[in-house]
Amino acid sequence: MTSDRSAALQALAALARRGGPREARRAAAHGGPPVEALARLGFDPARELEDLGMELADAGVELLDPATLPTLVSLADPPAVLFAWGTPPPQPWSGVAIVGTRAATPAGSARAHAIARGVAAAGAVVVSGLALGIDGAAHRGALAAGGCTIGILGGGHGRFFPLGNRTLASEIVAAGGCILSEYPPLQAAFPFQFLERNRLVAALARGVVVVESGRRGGAINTAGWAMEMGRELFTVPWDVERPKGAGCLRLLREGARAVGGAEDICEDLGLTVPVPVHRARRRLEAIAGVAGGLATRIVDALAGGERLIDELAEQCGAPIGLLRGALSILEIHGVVEDRGGGRVALVQ
Question: How far is residue 20's CA from residue 242's CA, in Å, rounded to a whole number?
Answer without folding.
Answer: 39
